[in-house]
Amino acid sequence: MKDKRDLPPIYDRANYTRENSMGYLMRRIGQLMVGAVDRQLGFTGLTHAQWAPLFLIHRGEANTLAALARELQVDAGALTRTLDRLEAKGLCRRERSAEDRRVVHLALTPEGKKAAEPVPGILCDVSNTMLQGFSRAEWETLMGFLKRIVANAEALKDGPLGDGDADGEGARSPNAD
Fold first, then answer.
1. Tens of pLDDT along 24-63?
2. Which pTM was predicted?
């Protein structure tokens, strides 16, 4: 059996379209999911920019400004403005670290915890609606594929693409002549 790395590339310049693009479809799914969750959370007055940080803080997945910015993949300055709004609503508070004054710890107020409570259920409801018609086995297969794509994408952080480009002709530097 062939090594999976020896399989021919899926895309080439001749057949690449936005509608056929894995990246476009994943981004579109994300946009549709965020829109659906925002509509379901409309009663809270929170937008994605606000409920996402509350959710991560509530779950203990990010307890500093830097960690939250990394998790949400947003600029720390933009996140600071969001946290200003959340603080003004009485949903979170920032506390300087006693050990390192550069570090700002984030915590939810009781009102913030209450605001974050419906988020997991709504995320489940929206996800289940988006997965209607999928069997558990199909979902497990999909999750395996997505996790493989994430692992491949994580490898891109380590440097340039492999030896070849989409046409199999080998990557060339723009200054290679």
1. 999 999 999 999 999 999 998 999 999 999 999 999 999 9
2. 0.78
In a shared domain, residues 63 and 109: yes
The reply to whether 21 and 65 lie within a common domain is: no
| Residues 176, 96: Cα–Cα separation, whole Å | 51
- Interior/surface letters 123-145, b for 16+ CB within 10 angstroms, e for the rest: beebeeeeeeeeeeeeeeeeeee
Q: What is the DSSP letter of 168?
A: S
The answer to the question of residue 153 being in a domain is no
Take residue 56 and report the two structure tokens written for it.
């991560």
The residue among 83, 26, 23 whose CA lies nearest residue 50 is: 83
**Has residue 4 been placed in a domain?**
no
Give the residue numbers spanning the domain of 55.
Answer: 46-120
Give the three-class secondary structure for 165: coil
